[in-house]
Design a protein that fits this description.
Layout lengths: L5 E2 L9 H10 L18 H18 L5 E6 L2 H13 L5 E6 L2 H10 L4 E7 L23 E4 L1 E2 L4 E2 L11 E4 L16 E5 L10 E6 L16 H6 L9 H16 L2 H21 L6 E2 L10 E5 L3 H13 L2 E2 L10 E4 L6 H17 L1
Parallel strand pairs: 1-13, 3-4, 3-5, 5-8, 8-9
Antiparallel strand pairs: 2-10, 6-7, 9-10, 11-12, 12-14
């Protein structure tokens, strides 16, 4: 049997092996259905059980209050860059955006098509190597909402706590660190996340929206772009990604069976600590690219003395079973994405490889 590699890809990304084995077991015949999940009707009682269990397990994991809807949509976080302002920016037609990387810049681009965007803070002048401090935020108390991106896959930065925004509704793109720890959902008006980084396969977008936000959605909006369409139909307005939702549900159960989000956060701190310690104690051979206090637990970015060494490192890493360590094409360098499903033994093995590579080069 072919051996699995250690998968450092930023997304689509590593999935828990227990989840993959369960999916393999159910692939041909889902228990009680006589067919695969990919074949069953999204209106069937079997799929109704799958999607409702996924919602219930997520509600348990995050302790989501009753005044929120959980939606499983399509179009990725990219579609949410448009849906958020289309639904939530009226009637004031202005919003605050905190810009900390490429994805928040793309969110700003779409929001500007709807109304006025105030850049409450940006770290672009610092090459997105840090998260802005609270006292840097220039917030508009009359903004329709404040938008931020919790974790930046390309640059390797992460908000450790939510920005304080007063009474203005808080919106967050949590695509690349969703469920890496427990968050207080009650602080947010809307949370969205593409599944393919830390929650499941590509093709599903999670949206958690507070009920009072739905009154902002105009009847004039195109039907699919209106959040009320999807809350009214419980994510079944159109045919959803049935297999993706099934897989996400398995990931939620895997998290619950492994101690929940507090246990996962402890594990993520351990994994990131091992890798960042190896970088920091390499006498400059490996160099972290962001401020230490803003380092991501999910995406570890670093550089080496020169690009030739980096290319050699990437090639030899792949030969040794470490795949996906090349940095994003827009910034270069190296990146190790160590999401929830990435095993601690894989981090230890990678650190050993880093040490050997340094000695040999």
């Amino acid at each position: 049997m072919e051996k699995r590699v250690y998968n450092f890809n930023a997304g689509p990304a590593v999935l828990p092996e227990d989840v993959l084995k369960q999916a393999q077991k159910d692939f041909m015949i889902y228990p009680g259905a006589g067919m695969s999940v990919m074949e069953m009707s999204h209106r069937s009682k079997e799929f109704d059980k799958i999607i409702n269990e996924a919602k219930a397990d997520l509600k348990t994991l995050l302790e989501i209050p009753d005044n929120y809807h959980i939606l499983f949509l399509q179009g990725g976080a990219t579609l949410q860059f448009s849906m958020v302002p289309l639904n939530l920016m009226p009637p004031a037609n202005k919003a605050d955006y905190i810009v900390t990387g490429s994805w928040s810049k793309k969110a700003v681009k779409e929001a500007k098509r709807v109304g006025s965007v105030n850049i409450a803070a940006s770290t672009e002048d610092d090459s997105f190597t840090r998260i802005p401090k609270q006292d840097e935020l220039k917030l508009d108390p009359e903004a329709s909402y404040v938008h931020f991106t919790s974790n930046n896959t390309i640059f390797g930065t992460e908000f450790k706590t939510e920005p304080e925004v007063g009474n203005v509704p808080l919106v967050c793109d949590t695509s690349s660190d969703m469920l890496h720890k427990k968050i207080d959902v009650s602080k947010y008006a809307l949370i969205y996340a593409g599944a393919q980084k830390n929650m499941g396969p590509s093709g599903v977008t999670l949206v958690i929206i507070r009920n009072d936000m739905l009154s902002r959605s105009s009847d004039e909006l195109h039907t699919y772009l209106n959040y009320t369409t999807h809350t009214a139909k419980a994510s079944l307005y159109n045919t959803p990604n049935t297999w993706g939702i099934y897989m996400i549900g398995l990931v939620y159960k895997w998290l619950l069976n492994n101690g929940g989000l507090d246990a996962m956060y402890k594990r993520n701190l351990e994994k990131a600590g091992i890798l960042y310690d190896a970088i920091d104690n390499s006498d400059g051979y490996y160099r972290g690219t962001v401020n230490k206090e803003d380092r991501s637990l999910m995406n570890v970015t670093f550089r080496m003395p020169n690009e030739d060494l980096e290319k050699k490192f990437i090639a030899e890493a792949a030969e040794n079973g470490f795949v996906g360590v090349k940095g994003h094409r827009s910034v270069g360098g190296l990146r190790a994405s160590i999401y929830n499903a990435f095993p601690v033994e894989g981090v230890n093995a990678f650190v050993d490889f880093m040490d050997k590579f340094k000695k040999n080069n």
